[in-house]
Amino acid sequence: MEQLEKNLTTIHIGNTPVRKCSTLSALFNTNIFIKEEFHNPGMSAKDRPALYMVQDAIANNKIQPGGTFVEASSGNTGLGITLIAKSLGYRSKIFVSKSCSDEKIDALQSAGAEIEICENSNGLHDFNSTQFRAQSYAATNDNAYFTNQYYNTQNIRAHYKSTGPELWEQTQGKITHFIAGIGTGGTISGVGRFLKAQNKHIKIWGVEPRGSVLRHFLKSGSMPDCLQPFEPIEGIGRNFIPGSLDVEVIDDIFQVESDDAKQAARRYAAETGILIGFSSAAIVACLSKYMEAMRIGRHDHVVLFFPDHGSRYISKLYAAEGQAIHYPQHIL
To answer: Where would a tag sit more exposed on the chain, N or C end, judged by fewer CB atoms within 10 A?
Structure first.
């Protein structure tokens, strides 16, 4: 355990900046702040649960030295696990769906992950899903551990213990709204639990693609009678309910279309010179669509959670526009 803690001291995850966005603040006539998670080593918020899940597995002997960490991921969690596992002397095998961006595939391969591409990420009930195949691989191979971010309690804990306290401190407790895309549910659940404990009046709002089931589940407590394909916004949206989702701390979930998110990304890049990720763009599109219904006041402090960087989605969001890439300062 001592050696593990010593090795982990070289991995600096978290304490990412909160930046006031003058462009969005002026557009929506309120105070808009952005939590910039692309300043993490793997350039995403998923480094946080990756660290907690890997640390928990090693500390509790769920995996032995030199073993293989296995995950079903849209790319970012897989990269976080790969980077952390490699630094500690472990291997990684990441199962991604065929919709995963080329940029994420390249990043995973460059980091040393073994990759398998699957048909979809529809959950453990689908034999062709990333989740089923990851679980199956871990169950049939020696010294392989499936971190299983969709059901691992460390996913929520990572954001409860790190992201939530950071936001409270960085806003001096003035935060009134927190808006995040929902994929596994870990971010919004962990942050929501912490912020609601500080001030129960803080609004915790989620964003998902049109056709995803999470809003229906929040409102009714059940799955919809008929499942339909949801709008393709990489990293968010589900047709099953992840175990990492705590709807008790979520006030509402809003749905957006993929095309609206793409337009929001390109518009934001044109106005600010900054490339944002797909789910970040979905949050901006959500504000544009629902701002009046949200009734956000001009003195409120609204924090948008931007989990990764637009350089992960050049082919999906920006290639046709020929936008220049603006990388975070720490990796230039």
So the answer is: C
**pLDDT tens digit string along 102-136?**
999 999 999 999 999 999 888 888 999 999 999 99
On whether residue 54 sits in a domain, the answer given is yes
CA atoms within 13 A on the CB side of 254: 22
- And the tokens for 33? 């702040």
Domain membership of residue 152 (yes or no) is no
Q: Edge to edge, what strands does the sheet with 144-146 contain? A: 114-118, 91-97, 68-72, 144-146
Burial state string for 87-105 with b = 16 or more CB within 10 A and e = fewer than 16 = ebebbbbbbbbeebbebbb
Residue 18, classified by CB atoms within 10 Å of its CB into exposed (0-12), middle (13-18) or buried (19+), is middle
The predicted-structure confidence for 264-291, as pLDDT tens digits, reads as follows 999 999 999 999 999 999 999 999 999 9
Q: Which amino acid, residue 314?
A: I
121 and 268: one domain?
no
Residue burial 278-290, b: 16+ Cβ < 10 Å; e: rest: bbbbbbbbbbbbb
Instruction: Tell me whether residue 46 is one of the annotated catalytic residues.
Output: yes
The confidence score (pLDDT) of residue 320 equals 62
Domain that holds residue 312: 2-39+162-326
Q: Are residues 127 and 256 in the same domain?
A: no
Is the pTM here over 0.70, yes or no?
Answer: yes
**Annotated catalytic residue: which of 46, 93, 104, 316?**
46
- Closest to 270 (Cα-Cα) out of 209, 328, 332, 317: 317
pLDDT of 329 strictly over 70: no
